[in-house]
Amino acid sequence: MAIHEPARHIYDANGNYRGSVSSISPQDYRLAGSIGELLPLAILGAIVWWAWGMASTWNTLEQPYKYIAAYYYWIIVVPLKGFVPAWGYFASMQVSNFPNINLIIQLVLGVFGVLLYFFLLILGLGVVGAILKACRLQRWWSTFLFGPLVFAILWFLGAQLFNWLLAK
Question: Are residues 151 and 162 in the same domain?
Fold first, then answer.
């Protein structure tokens, strides 16, 4: 983005403000907008990275955060970590004595294993969705997903307020 002169302010003959003229191009505004869109994405990425770390070390947290992090660990982290063993299992198979053929077979089987795991994960989510629908809880899926998070935030805020009230 080039350096531009400041905006010129325009006044009429009576001294009333009429507006301003800027030499900033629409391209510069689009560039500033795209940078502004990246910041929330970066913040969201940092939050997800932090939450992944907290869920992965759930057994080291204090009560009740330990149970909430374990909940998210088992419903989000464990299924997503399953892609790595599926790939590793198929990619480590030695089918023939020829390394190049083995490489091709390992790649094909590795991709097949990841796709199979993804299919089974989607199938499992479909089964959970069908169970929720059969139990008439389909509208409550967000409560199951975000309820523990809201509880943890309220518990944290309540504990901070209680500690602040009883501080000497």
Answer: yes
- Do 81 and 38 lie in a common domain? no
Q: Quick one: how many helices (H) and strands (E) in the chain?
A: 6, 2
Q: What are residue 19's DSSP bridge partners?
A: 10
**164 and 83 together in one domain:** yes
Alpha carbon distance 143, 34 (integer Å): 33
Type of residue at 134: A
Same structural domain for residues 109 and 43?
A: no
pTM of this structure? 0.56
Q: Are residues 135 and 102 in the same domain?
A: yes
Torsion sign, CA atoms 70, 53, 138, 143: positive
**Band of residue 1 on the pLDDT scale cut at 50, 70, 90:** very low
Peptide bond into 6 cis (omega under 30): no
Q: Please name the residue that has the structure tokens 């790649």.
A: 107
Q: What share of the chain is helix, strand, coil (3-state, %, to 5)?
A: 75, 5, 20
8 is in which domain, residue-wise?
Answer: 1-56
